[in-house]
Amino acid sequence: MKKYIGILLVGFSSVLWSQKHPVDYVNPFIGTSNYGATHPGAMAPRGMVSVSPFNVAGNLNLLEKDSQWLSNPYVHENTFLTGFTHVNLSGVGCPDLGVIITMPTTGPIETNHLVYGSTYSGEQAKPGYYAVDLNKYSIKAEATASTRAGVSRYHFPAGTSNILLNLGLGLTNELGSMLRFVSSTEIEGMRTVGSFCYNSPEQAYPVYFVMRFSEPPHEFGAWKTPYTNNGVESQWMGYNGNTRLMKGYTKTVVGDSIGAYVSYQFKKPTVVEVKVGVSYVSIENARENLDREVGSLSFDQVYNTTRKTWNDKLSVVEVSGGKEEDFTVFYSALYHTQIHPNILNDINGEYPEIATGKIGKTTGTRYTTFSLWDTYRNYHQLMTLLYPREQLDMVRSMLAMYDENGWLPKWELNSTETFTMVGDPAAVVIADTYLRGLTDFDVQKAYEAMVKSATQLENNPLRPGLREYLEKGYLSVDGGVAGPVSTTQEYNMADYAIAQLAKVLGKKGDFKRFYTQSLSYKNLFDPKWKLLRPKHRDGSWFSPFDPYKGANFEKNVGYIEGNAWQYALMIPHDVNGLMQLMGGRSGFIKNLDYIFENNQFDMANEPDIAYPYLYNYVKGKEWKTQDRVDQLLANYFTNKPAGLPGNDDTGTMSAWAIYSMMGIYPIIPADPVYTITTPTFSKIKIHLDTTFYPSGELIIEASNSARDRFIQSLEIDGKLHKGYFLSHEALVRSKLLKFTLKEQQ
Amino acid sequence: MKKYIGILLVGFSSVLWSQKHPVDYVNPFIGTSNYGATHPGAMAPRGMVSVSPFNVAGNLNLLEKDSQWLSNPYVHENTFLTGFTHVNLSGVGCPDLGVIITMPTTGPIETNHLVYGSTYSGEQAKPGYYAVDLNKYSIKAEATASTRAGVSRYHFPAGTSNILLNLGLGLTNELGSMLRFVSSTEIEGMRTVGSFCYNSPEQAYPVYFVMRFSEPPHEFGAWKTPYTNNGVESQWMGYNGNTRLMKGYTKTVVGDSIGAYVSYQFKKPTVVEVKVGVSYVSIENARENLDREVGSLSFDQVYNTTRKTWNDKLSVVEVSGGKEEDFTVFYSALYHTQIHPNILNDINGEYPEIATGKIGKTTGTRYTTFSLWDTYRNYHQLMTLLYPREQLDMVRSMLAMYDENGWLPKWELNSTETFTMVGDPAAVVIADTYLRGLTDFDVQKAYEAMVKSATQLENNPLRPGLREYLEKGYLSVDGGVAGPVSTTQEYNMADYAIAQLAKVLGKKGDFKRFYTQSLSYKNLFDPKWKLLRPKHRDGSWFSPFDPYKGANFEKNVGYIEGNAWQYALMIPHDVNGLMQLMGGRSGFIKNLDYIFENNQFDMANEPDIAYPYLYNYVKGKEWKTQDRVDQLLANYFTNKPAGLPGNDDTGTMSAWAIYSMMGIYPIIPADPVYTITTPTFSKIKIHLDTTFYPSGELIIEASNSARDRFIQSLEIDGKLHKGYFLSHEALVRSKLLKFTLKEQQ
Questions:
Q1: What region, left, alpha or beta, does residue B676 occupy, with left being phi > 0 and alpha being psi -120 to 50 degrees?
Q2: How far is B224 from chain A (nearest CA, A)?
Q3: Are the Cβ atoms of A254 and B190 closer than 8 angstroms?
Q4: Which of B202, B258, B284 to mutate to test the interface with A (most CBs of A within 10 A)?
Q5: A-chain residues within 8 Å CB-CB of B254?
Q6: Which of A586, B100, B470, B739 is the most buried (most CB within 10 A)?
Q7: Is residue B25 part of a domain?
Q8: In this structure, are residues A217 and A185 in contact, taking their beta carbons and an 8 Å threshold?
Q9: DSSP letter at A118?
Q10: Do B427 and B510 belong together in one domain?
Q11: In chain A, what residues touch B204 (CB-CB under 8 Å)?
Q12: Nearest to B252 among A190, A227, A256 (CB)
């Protein structure tokens, strides 16, 4: 970025022409309120490790992890901090991870987090860095991280100070840990996590760690909190239910609620660094990760490297000409797309395979945390455009999972299949990737895997109810499959993806078969309501039908996380067919307007997030897309902790914002086409990876002032572009998209 | 023993002249009722491992582990078996160990021991062997063991059968385990044990294991039983509090309540062998122990070796001429002296050091389970006589503990100091051993260690209240030390031992000082009561004084596990001094008779176990010793599960019986002298270890018929012996002790 330094600022503030770098615009607090479920912790791009403040335990907090369904280690409006977690999920809807919790304290050892917790102030968060002052102890705590290791720096006052490692506490509801002091300055151990979305507790799995302290402690020990014995024997157990401090203990400690501490007697204020390597394979690998990534590097050295990595990552898009706040929203969103999927393999390539119990080894990157029901809609398309190498490794990771357990993933987390949500989204992601030109993976195997889940009638974990779906063309309310309307739509989507891939692979019969299947949603279209409606197995409609029921995640008969309105238009691959059913353009627009005008649009969930772009399908109504997207960005994507509409959904919401701010949106999954809207910035420079996109650089320019919200025209490489759609191929071949804007429609 | 085969039986049944070997007389069920706290499990002499039936869980049992203070894995009158433990204590008074529990079952996997438990029949127990039929499953289960590994053999019927490994269940109240399937036929893991006597939970420690199955299972898995979540979140946890079966799980499992299973589909009845190696150091050592001791050996091969080892051990004494039942009582008692102290070191010499957390290495044997308050009185004297090499390694083990943590042991268990009971008994054992001629240890270090505990005024874990004891000559009821009278007596005993050792080491000043101290019990002698009585710090007597209070382990002010009567004569080193205080011979005998005649003698506890021998101190009254010992043997030491008076106290009760049946008793700890009584057998041949006792063989003969209960005369090597005392030196130099008996006194 150095080349831009010193050039005078003209007009708007600007990334390109300021000394501020993309990394400097990121506000990691965005999404930490309003259930965005992000956290402000320090981490490297797609890091296995993140060091996050943990402030969701204890009733002093507004949102408490045990008192409600809470899926994040940190909530911005909470006030009571009980430590720093080292593995975390970001932007998901279910609690898991949030473990390996460290906490600096002063005074006598106290192991109960409800007692040792502290209010705090002076929070700072930047990519790869977090800092906070713990009021109770006058300790400043800082955190940074490499990919597989966290580094913390605790600024202790003079006197007795401690670092606690609490393995009983966690966001996850799993319990079970092990630890051992290898020396007074090194602890090795593991923590069990799992039961994501309160599912599949039998798949609970270990996360291993090695933790090092820069200063030898004056004293160290472990603790163990037993459950209370209520039997006759309790009369002799003076220690019944009480935490035991095991001073100087160097044997292995295991149990549901255990911890460790190191204690110091400082004559003057002293800084201690805590380095934590993590692995999902073994303690040895956690140690190797720590040694090779951090070793003897200082906190500052680790942070500087991670900061640079972040900046390089974020600089793939350079924006200028716009509001400072929008730069922050844009780069924070881009930051949030670089958290999940995250790296699962250790630095030596090893990772736990899915389902086999074996340790696999990759020469590339094994990714994990595939929230595919969310991410198939726009996230992977964005990765394909901006980070094609990563997207290819994600596809390869998915195929490796197929090799391992015979199935593509659905909602994979750390090599467990959580079976969260519905549909068959992996097929969509893989087909989409291939069709956008990223073909360097075993497409025959991928196709075989997709077809398997689309056709295997028995013991098919990905497509429950498949027999009925194939026989009737829909899932009935009687078949026992949750959200039968939604799930039919999802299967249609996946079938469309398979059809599209079949076509390019020259499998004409398959193309026809799956394409036909992909339109079977029509069986659920009730002409009376002009909506998709739940149906019985015998073909009769489910009654009473209330298309409003199901909003705000309310449980209902036909739909998953939404109501009939929020699914009404979720037929991205056959908008024109749907339009016909709804009575043509006017009926379609009527429904679309009705949804927006009657509060039936939910920006916070995926089924309807493409709705604002559907106006582009009706000539003369495109301005409504521009208008609505602009309003949605302004209302829901802001530089505030509540600046995400809801769960970030592992970057899906952020990807929506990024695309929307760039003026393009991948409107049909598994169909490499974009639709367009008004860009937020006057200049957007996309550095394309020339291995995949030889043109190398794509510039999107717009003559926008703050008031120019509508598109007057679009020129691509000097040539007027007709219509509001643009193929991926055309986009990545282009050098310049030049929008001319206007203030009024 | 082959040489005896074929010789005709004449007169009494006889070990020497029958085909029955000593090992064949042992009944391991002796002591499994009446709180004897022994178990009938299979084990090698002083083995780290014993495979015992576990029938103390579940209210179907008369004596249930959680419903009372119960210190043994097996109770003879119980009926509901829930598995087979692999590490156990024998004859102790507090619950611990009783873990690594296997259980063969049939049918679907059931992990709740209260459900999978079974009644049983057809029990057999012999040294190194146990067998039982599990009624519920029609499974015969057999067990044998080498020193550090257990081998079980389960005879399964055709159909679905399983072997469970329940790491949640145990006699110990500790929880916390780890396990991992290394392959379908090998599990490695650990179990936390500790809190012996409900003390020192912070010293809880791991026992590691490696378990192998001879047949590859059809299916395997782990389980985990979580505690019930009572919070708001429980509504989403369908698995809340329920055991999870984790089929095919090969990752590490940790938690408070976990287990594993292997499952078979047998077409015909099939035998599966389960081999379990154990270590207190590491999983690797557990595996090495298993590999080197058992490896590919069959159940029968392991059993045959262990049986031979037992027979060699027991054959150190050959008895003949007596009742068959008495042979059983004698050899079972000798068997029970060969259980604890037991071997702690792995086959490679490694063992956990005490307190340091380090792994030590021995070229000899590191013993553990030193219940010294019990064993200083007669047990170690017996080991010195019969197994001098072992006794020396026990002393060396005690000195190694001093090297490791700076203190001799008090009640050491698996390298933890449990601080159970009172006094300073290690000094007595070590002095006694040296004075009996076993001098091959670092006596200067031993002396230094003894003096340290006898003189260090602050932070002295062995002698609480030492300052008061030294200043006042007694521990007062105001000093906060439990049982101040008893503890004063114990400190006196230890001081006497130090004095005796000081004398032979030429430390005249020390001798005088400690000998003087050893008589300070006189400060507590109340001439009014003619008993030792609790005293205040200011010298006034504690009132009201009830010399009966404290019987049957009732808590009382002055005494530990006894009342004033049971401690009244516990001054073994100064019987004549005590006699004077009591008004000479008549007062002494009066008290002694009173105790026996008024039910104040407790055969089940150590303080008064030498009382029956005290008649030998009064000329003309020796027949009362012979009479009482004979009656006590008949009443309390029998070939029945209830055939021990109470806790065997790691062999102390058994040692009492052995000595008593041989007609000699080590009446003064740390004074190498025996007193004599009527031998039970007409011939007792003791094979002395010629390294220490060159005479090699000592024969005790007695002209006893069943009715000859009294001693007329004793000839030693043809010379009439005067009096009823005999030095250890004289005894071991002798070839023949020839008793002439008579029917009436």
A1: beta
A2: 8
A3: yes
A4: B202
A5: 176-178, 190, 192, 206, 254-255
A6: B100
A7: no
A8: yes
A9: B
A10: yes
A11: 224, 244, 246
A12: A190
* Separation between Cα atoms, residue A541 and residue B276, nearest integer Å: 63
Q: What is the mean pLDDT of residues A43-66?
A: 96
* Nearest-angstrom CA–CA distance, A17 and A443: 43
- Distance between CA B713 and CA B723 in Å, rounded? 9
How far does A169 lie from chain B, in Å, by closest CA? Answer: 14
CATH label of the domain that carries residue B353: 3.30.2080.10
Cβ–Cβ below 8 Å for B247 and A66: no
Spatial CB neighbours of A339, under 8 Å, sequence gap ≥ 6? A38, A43, A45, A46, A47, A50, A90, A91, A650, A651
User: For B702-728, what is each residue's pLDDT tens digit?
Assistant: 986 767 899 999 999 999 999 999 999
CA angle at residue B167 from B185 to B254, to 5 degrees? 85
Which sign, positive or negative, has the C-alpha torsion A68, A73, A79, A84? positive
Q: Which residues of B touch A176 (CB under 8 A)?
A: 224, 253-256, 258
In whole angstroms, what is the distance from residue B71 CA to residue B153 CA?
27
For residue B197, what are the contacts with CB-CB under 8 A and spacing of at least 6? B93, B94, B96, B418, B420
CA distance to A190, A361, A396, A405, B32, per residue, from A358 (Å): 18, 10, 18, 11, 46
A346 φ, ψ to 5°?
A: -75, 170
On whether both A331 and A304 belong to a single domain, the answer is no
Domain end residue (candidates: A281, A311, A341): A311
Amino acid identity of residue A721, one-letter, is H
In chain A, what percentage of residues exceed pLDDT 70?
97
**Interface predicted TM-score (ipTM) of this complex, two decimals:** 0.90
Tell me which chain A residue has its CA closest to the CA of residue B280. Answer: A251
Same domain, B306 and B423: no
> What average pLDDT does the segment B60-81 reach?
95
Bridge partners (DSSP) of residue A531 are A526
Q: State the average pLDDT for chain B.
A: 95
**Total domains present in chain A:** 2
CB atoms inside a 10 Å sphere around CB A708: 18
Is B358 close to A250, i.e. CB distance below 8 A? yes
User: What is the model's pLDDT at position B704?
Assistant: 65
Q: B253–A176: do the CB atoms touch at under 8 Å?
A: yes
> Judging by DSSP bridges, how do beta strands B736-742 and B697-702 pair with one another?
parallel
The full DSSP string for B371-399 is EHHHHTTTHHHHHHHH-HHHHHHHHHHHH
Residue B166 sits in a domain whose CATH number is 2.70.98.10
Residue B642 carries which side chain, given as an amino acid letter?
A: A
Looking at the predicted structure, is the pLDDT value of residue B465 above 60? yes
Q: How does pLDDT run across A636-659, given as a tens digit for each residue?
A: 999 999 999 999 999 999 999 999
Which residue type occupies A713? S
B562 domain-assigned? yes
- A659 and A665 in contact (C-beta within 8 Å)? yes
Together in a domain, A307 and A346: no
Statement to judge: residues B284 and B320 lie in one domain: no
Domain membership of residue B302 as a residue range: 34-221+262-311
Question: Do both A320 and A295 map to the same domain?
Answer: no
Q: Which residue has the tokens 């000094």?
A: B427
Q: Is residue A448 part of a domain?
A: yes
Please give the structure tokens belonging to residue A97: 């991870």
Confirm if A51 and A39 have CB atoms less than 8 A apart.
Answer: no
Distance from the Cα of residue B490 to its chain's centroid: 20
State CA B88 to chain mean position distance. Answer: 11
Please give the radius of gyration of chain B, using alpha carbons only, rounded to the nearest integer: 26
Place of tokens 């043997």: B633
Position B1 pLDDT exceeds 60: no
Indicate whether B442 and B549 sit together in one domain.
Answer: yes
Q: Is residue B629 part of a domain?
A: yes
Q: What's the CA gap between A460 and A469, in Å, rounded?
A: 13
Among the candidates A311, A332, A349, a domain finishes at A311
Strands A253-255 and A697-702: unpaired
